[in-house]
Amino acid sequence: MAKPNPCLDCGAxxxxxxxxxxxxxxxxxxxxxxxxxxxxxxxxPMQRAMKGTEKKHRPKCVALKGKIGENAGCSIYDxxxxxxxAFQASFENGIHQQRCDEARRAxxxxxxVKSDWLEFPTPQENxxxxxx
Length: 132
Prior knowledge:
This protein is largely without helices or strands. It has two helices and five strands.
């Protein structure tokens, strides 16, 4: 059985970094998966930010639901902007990511390690019906 993805209950990055993106990512006429209109603020004429992440102290994305480190998740996952899509957790692809560690530490979570991503084979039956 595979270990659960550690990002599925974390949410630390969503409550640590500003999520700024190109304004057109929130234009329904330009993107089928546009960021919802009530989820962003204008930063500049060319940039928008997810609401809550524009704050200097204690940022928290408006789309983040649940408790960080326990059951956190994105309420607009399929519509999230490019910075969220590009963010990588430490060792998700075998590479250490300092920014992930930084966000997790800020919320009292331990940094991820390679073994957090190891998958274990799911039990299978052999020809005799014995689980191996």
